[in-house]
Amino acid sequence: MTLAALLLSVLLSSATLAWGFAQSGFASFSAWMIVFGLGWLLAVWQRWFWYSSLALILYIILAALGLWFGFSPGWLFAGGIFALFAWDMTEFRQRLVLMGKRDDARVVERRHLLRVSLLALTGMTLASIAMLLRGQFTFEWGALFVAVILLGLAQLAGWFRK
User: Fold this and answer.
1) Helix (H) or strand (E) holding 151
2) ∠ CA 146-65-38 to the nearest 5 degrees?
3) Interatomic CA distance for residues 39 and 45, integer angstroms
4) Residue 57: CB partners within 8 Å, gap ≥ 6?
5) Which of 63, 49, 62 is nearest to 142 (CA)?
6) What is the residue-wise DSSP string for 74-138?
7) How far is CA 51 from CA 7, 44, 128, in A?
8) Contact 120/82 with Cβ under 8 angstroms?
9) Of 38-42, 75-79, 102-106, 133-137, which range is least confident?
10) Is residue 30 within 8 Å of residue 19, measured between CB atoms?
11) Measured at the alpha carbon of residue 13, what is the angle toward residues 66 and 152, in degrees to the nearest 5?
12) pTM score, two decimals?
């Protein structure tokens, strides 16, 4: 289940960021994002766990740059949210391997997927609101979105300690 969520989130992250940049006239740049996303899929297959941290940092920086230049915020937020989800799934898969063959591994996996999916759903709701408010998207709205994302990350970090 975790692998399917990881692969889907990598594809969605790359596709939404690429679409956001392509809509603003950066088609060649978005093609490189797709290539980097394919590299991320290769990294999942090869078990290069370090790649997900690099990809998360790159995708968040790209999303922030796109917001800075006034691109469509919904696609950029979605790309960042799915990148964060993919990074989390990579880290969680490592933790599952360390857990070994325990009876409650499936329960832990299901519970984690539920929690992270709720967080991603909240983020996608905010991204949808950002797309609806595209013309009225101001610095204040951006600050609100960043605050909500940081609160979500703090909650997610708290769940890792349990």
Assistant:
1) helix 139-160
2) 100
3) 10
4) none
5) 63
6) HHHHHHHHHHHHHHHHHHHHHHHHHH-S-TTHHHHHHHHHHHHHHHHHHHHHHHHHHHHTGGG--
7) 14, 8, 28
8) yes
9) 133-137
10) yes
11) 85
12) 0.75
- Which residue matches tokens 């933790």? 95
> pLDDT tens, 13-24?
999 999 999 998
**Amino acid at site 146:** V
Three-class DSSP category at 145: helix
Give per-residue pLDDT as tens, 108-134.
878 888 877 877 787 778 777 767 776
Please count the other Cβ atoms lying within 10 Å of the Cβ belonging to residue 94.
Answer: 13
Query: Which amino acid appears at position 106 of this protein?
Result: R
